[in-house]
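Q: I'm writing up a methods section and want to include an example of the input and output format. Could you take the sequence below and give the corresponding predicted structure tokens, formatted cleanly so I can copy it straight into the document?
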Amino acid sequence: MNERTYRKVFEQFLNDYWGAFHEVLEAQSVNPKRLAGSLFDDLIAAHRRFAAVAKAPRANMARLDRLWTLVTARRAEAPDAPLSAREVMWARMQFEAIYDALTARGTLYPLASKQVHARAVHGTPRTPLRPDAAA
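A: Here is the clean output for your methods example:
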């Protein structure tokens, strides 16, 4: 992975995939009994986009893929069903592991890593959640 690819993948992870998950968490903090289908659909789409370009860490991406598959199946019966606390915790662990792997790779490209962090609208999986990040 060269610096340009690293920047693209890391930005996509933080601003697209983590960002979509962050939006789900933010929505569920406001209404924990319901999750709008559009937010979950955005999360699934972001997962697919990231999976298409990400080379690292496959195990965590596979775990997230299984989780989203299970949640999708459950939501087929209850379309606005939120993520459970356990699912949120499990997903966050996977996001943290992916973030850690990308951050470790960023030691090869410190300027790119710093710039991506500076533009991370939704923060990172390792920082406190930012309320109203999209505002």
